[in-house]
Amino acid sequence: xxxxxxxxxxxxxxxxxxxxxxxxxxxxxxxxxxxxxxxxxxxxxxxxxxxxxxxxxxxxxxxxxxxxxxxxxxxxxxxxxxxxxxxxxxxxxxxxxxxxxxxxxxxxxxxxxxxxxxxxxxxxxxxxxxxxxxxxxxxxxxxxxxxxxxxxxxxxxxxxxxxxxxxxxxxxxxxxxxxxxxxxxxxxxxxxxxxxxxxxxxxxxxxxxxxxxx
Length: 214
Prior knowledge:
By secondary structure, the protein is of the alpha/beta class. It has a single domain, classed as NagB/RpiA/CoA transferase-like (Rossmann fold). It starts with a helix and ends with a strand. The strands form three sheets. It has a six-stranded parallel beta sheet, with helices on both faces. It has a four-stranded mixed beta sheet with strand order 8-5-6-9, with helices on both faces. The protein is 28% helix and 23% strand.
């Protein structure tokens, strides 16, 4: 018996006493939404489960003020923004005394590591998993921008939030076909050492701030 068969044998043995009614068949169909009562509420709840801060605003005009608020609350003194970010956001941050650095020409890694936060948009939000996906088009910047600063503030629009992964992959298909990198973000970066001590900020930003528009 090979290793694969041995593993499957043990799994079957372990599931012998599980009633068949306990098994739930998730009807995942590529590009199709998963049924849920309120996609946006589920998204907010799941993102907050990752200890991220979520603020909801009604319109895009509300973004500059709330962006400044969440950055100030996180004690951010400087931000880097990719090309394609709304100028009004940058102007609001500058007016609030936050230093704004545009990633054009590209900021080197040493300086990025000293900047307090990055502000981006997103491509897709996944309600079921609380995940935000960046495909690094306009407003989303290079991958390194979202890895080195300590705080990531991300603005996402209601029509970008989908139910589950199959629907998200369909939305991301053009970026995938174009060979663009994808960054999947589920809360701030966190890991545990061998003693299960939680350590934040090891693999990316320690804090995730999300502004949901609409």
